[in-house]
Design a protein that fits this description.
Helices cover 27% and strands 35% of the residues. The protein has 126 residues and is α+β, with helices and mostly antiparallel strands. The chain is globular and about 35 Å long.
Length: 126
């Protein structure tokens, strides 16, 4: 757990330094177990929804907001709130997913690429 927390802390610092507009991060296992989440995010009621997104759901409700999946492939998912309330972006890794809440002004493709690039340290840790 401490190792994963350090990895997520490092990703958060790097995102800030790189002006990647990520507000929250979480690591969730392929079975839906929350391994780690930043203090400003509570995902315990949403893990099944996130797993469904990985299985192909094209829209979902999260914190009373509707998100539409706009891109999905084997590396991750980009979903966005069409009222400008932000984005939920997921990057897959060996053993789970790295989930982020990106701010409304974020470049979603840039966030996904950043997350994919930085999931390597999480592979096999769950």
């Amino acid at each position: 757990m401490n190792e994963i927390k350090k990895i997520i802390d490092d990703i958060g610092i790097l995102a800030f330094e790189s002006s990647i507009k990520i507000a929250s991060l979480a690591v969730i296992s392929n079975l839906g177990e929350i391994i780690y989440q930043t203090d400003n995010w509570e995902l315990s009621s949403y893990t099944n929804i996130l797993l469904d997104v990985l299985k192909g759901t094209d829209k979902f409700i999260f914190n009373n907001l509707e998100f539409l999946v706009v891109k999905t492939d084997s590396k991750g998912v980009i979903s966005t709130n069409n009222k400008g309330m932000g984005h939920i972006i997921i990057a897959n890794f060996d053993g789970g997913m790295l989930v982020s809440f990106a701010m409304p002004q974020a470049d979603t493709q840039q966030v996904l690429e950043f997350l994919i690039k930085n999931t390597g340290n999480l592979n096999g840790k769950i």
